[in-house]
Design a protein that fits this description.
The protein is built from 5 helices and 5 strands, in the order αααααβββββ. By secondary structure, it is α+β, with helices and mostly antiparallel strands. A hairpin with a 7-residue loop joins β3 and β4. The relative contact order is 0.06.
Length: 215
């Protein structure tokens, strides 16, 4: 009996750790490029990598060959990854104690950035909610203030007088009034001897005539 087993292409298996290491390596390279300030690394020539090798040796005491640096910067096709000694030298030249210190520092920065992003994510709705509450409170206070202000009736500038046309009954009485300066919504003429007789008059006018058939 013959058994067959599936064969996996290991070259296609990419783990999160490999992606993270590649990201960190690119970041370390960017720091080195910023330090030496030689322009875009895509235009570097062989002499540039030779000079970089000399600079790294002078700064760290570690020799990284030109071919190694060219592989790291993608000038030569290479499927492997740098060993720890090479990574330590690169991290040291970039300003860190070693590769582990460089990784730890960038992981802390990543966590801080995530916390900051999360805080901003929840802070923005909170600020919006507080702003809306403040605006709602302001409108409510303004409405209450307007209600209170409008509830205070002003009538000190109202003028009123009456004059009968003839003597006896029936008799017509001319009422002269001016309520234009008042904030009242409606104006009435009320007989003081009979509370049932109240007549609404036009606030914008000033004369009203009433006829009485009983004394």
């Amino acid at each position: 009996m013959v058994y067959s087993y599936p064969v996996h292409d290991c070259s296609r298996l990419v783990t999160n750790e490999m992606i993270d290491n590649q990201f960190l390596l690119e970041k370390c390279k960017a720091l080195i490029e910023t330090r030496i300030a030689w322009g875009d690394s895509s235009s570097w020539q062989i002499r540039d990598f030779e000079n970089l090798s000399e600079r790294i040796f002078e700064s760290t005491g570690v020799v990284l060959s030109t071919s190694t640096l060219k592989r790291i910067w993608g000038k030569v096709s290479y499927s492997g990854k740098p060993n720890l000694a090479t990574l330590d030298a690169l991290a040291l030249f970039a300003g860190f104690e070693n590769w582990r210190a460089f990784v730890a520092a960038n992981q802390l920065n990543g966590i801080s950035s995530q916390k900051s992003s999360a805080a901003k994510k929840y802070l923005r709705p909170a600020i919006l909610l507080v702003t809306l509450l403040i605006l709602a409170g302001g409108f409510a206070a303004g409405f209450v203030f307007m209600r209170k202000t409008s509830a205070i009736l002003t009538y000190t500038d109202i003028t009123f007088s009456s004059k009968p046309v003839t003597l006896g009954v029936p008799n017509t009485v001319i009422f002269n009034y001016d309520a234009s300066q008042s904030n009242a919504d409606s104006v009435f003429i009320q007989q003081d001897w009979d509370e049932r007789k109240k007549v609404k008059v036009d606030k914008q006018k000033q004369v009203y005539a009433g006829t009485y058939y009983f004394p």
